[in-house]
Specification:
A hairpin with a 2-residue loop joins β1 and β2. It is built from 17 helices and two strands. A two-stranded antiparallel sheet has the order 1-2. 46% of the residues are buried. By secondary structure, the chain is mostly helical.
Length: 468
């Protein structure tokens, strides 16, 4: 069905307070909340960094050789993570279809992208947990731990700043706070000898370190979700849930490596550093290569999705809008990161079957076609998707777009509803047409659209100021 044209609308600047000043929009309020959320992480990190540097300069550097070795390890990890192949920007903006601003993963990041420098994270945690080095007690304490982590992190940012990309403050703030948390929990116990007696001595000592690192990773997940909330304006709960779901992945490897480095250094001295870090370093480069391959696949799918626009079968930007909004609705409904990626691919490719038509459908909206024709287009689209190398689930979603919504998986229902919304609203930024589009979707929930998906779409639009 071809959507009705939007009514003329006032430009945003025309909506003013009685006194003549522009009325603050929802995006302005969201930006203010984002800055406040970021300040709750950056301000404590800056205070802790200043205090640690001051104390370290005042007291002097204890065991400089050990501090230099761990500092070099952390700096190497930062350089390998931030400057290696496929490295992310450091601020979580890594997607090609992100909702609002461009980002390669959309909302949220894949588990392997959450920790951009795992070797640096493992080294920082190991230094915070270190109680002995080669059988001799370590005496660096909390301030020196944070100072070394901070100095190494700043060194790792030099190449990035030299390329004019600006400092990645979010990862550095997280690193400082998590290292400070782990050191505060562990270093005073080492200094007082509390870890030499039961119940945390002997075989139970590694278990104690693992438990401590579990708390540290939880702390880091809270910080990461807070910073993601500041960047994207998304609800904090789903962001934290995504971070917690990712902990069993690379986070487990980072924690295990940190414990092994601390225990190995206590027995074998600094020679344990290269031996314990080599497996994680190789894994990190493997993840980077995987990220490059996945990014290339995503770009290929996005380019193929644009073929319908270039050929005149769908409006300009339609596939991108449907993909970004579908991902946002999927996140609102609590889909996992793998499901969100499949959903994004399917939304990009959902109209590819229209290339089989001799004449384009007006506006690219196929709802007015006979059911048999809709089914044929969907099946042809699924056949094309299967040739791209995309996951089989993507083809299934595309093939089932013409099925009754009650017979579809939730991902297919999301694409169906968001596609209809974009057709009805015409991709306009004005509230009039969008409100009418939502009203028409609600009227069609008995037959064409699942009510829960429609309401999730309405919540996403309302939160982002796109529904009036």
């Amino acid at each position: 069905m071809t959507p009705a044209p939007d009514a003329p609308e006032e430009p945003p600047d025309a909506r003013r307070r009685p006194g003549g000043s522009p009325a603050p929009g929802r995006r302005g309020v969201s930006a203010v909340r984002g800055r406040v959320a970021a300040a709750t992480v950056h301000a404590p990190a800056a205070a802790l960094a200043c205090w640690s540097l001051g104390r370290t300069l005042w007291d002097g550097l204890a065991q400089p050789g050990i501090a230099l070795a761990f500092g070099a390890l952390i700096a190497l990890g930062e350089l390998a993570g931030r400057c290696g192949p496929g490295a992310s920007t450091g601020n979580g903006r890594a997607s090609s279809t992100g909702y609002g601003r461009a980002s390669s993963t959309g909302y949220g990041r894949a588990p392997e992208e959450r920790e951009g420098a795992p070797l640096a994270a493992a080294g920082a945690l190991a230094y915070a947990l270190l109680g002995e080095a080669g059988g001799r007690p370590a005496a660096h304490g909390v301030p020196q731990t944070v100072a070394v982590v901070l100095a190494a992190g700043l060194v790792g940012l030099v190449p990035r700043a030299a390329r004019g990309r600006g400092p990645a403050l979010d990862p550095l703030a997280r690193r400082v706070l998590t290292a400070g948390f782990a050191a505060t929990c562990c270093q005073p116990l080492h200094a007082t000898g509390a870890l030499d007696g039961r119940p945390v001595s002997g075989p139970a000592h590694p278990l104690f370190l693992v438990a401590l690192l579990a708390l540290t990773t939880l702390c880091d997940a809270v910080l990461a979700a807070t910073l993601a909330r500041a960047r994207t304006g998304r609800p904090y709960g789903p962001l934290l849930r995504d971070e917690l779901r990712a902990l069993p992945g690379p986070g487990t490897a980072v924690c295990a490596t940190g414990v092994v480095i601390a225990l190995g250094t206590a027995v074998a001295g600094l020679w344990a550093l290269p031996v314990c870090c080599l497996p994680l370093l190789l894994t990190q480069f493997a993840f980077h290569r995987f990220t490059v391959v996945r990014t290339t696949c995503r770009q290929t799918v996005a380019s193929l999705a644009r073929s319908t626009e270039i050929a005149g079968y769908t409006p300009r930007g339609h596939a991108r809008r449907v993909a970004t909004l579908s991902r946002a609705v999927g996140r609102e409904l609590g889909l996992t990161a793998p499901d969100l990626e499949v959903l994004e691919y399917a939304a990009l490719m959902h109209d590819i079957g229209q290339l089989s038509l001799l004449d384009p459908v007006p506006g690219g909206a196929t709802a007015a076609l006979p059911p048999a024709e809709q089914r044929r287009i969907a099946l042809l689209g699924g056949a094309v998707v299967r040739q791209t190398g995309a996951p089989a689930e993507v083809a299934v979603i595309v093939e089932r777009q013409a099925d009754p919504y009650r017979d579809q998986p939730v991902t297919a229902r999301i694409v169906r509803t968001v596609n209809a919304y974009d057709d009805l609203s015409g991709g306009s930024a004005g509230p009039g047409g969008r409100l009418r589009a939502l009203a028409r979707l609600r009227l069609a929930t008995a037959r064409d659209h699942e009510p829960g998906v429609v309401e999730a779409l309405a919540r996403v639009l309302a939160r982002d100021g796109r529904a009036g």
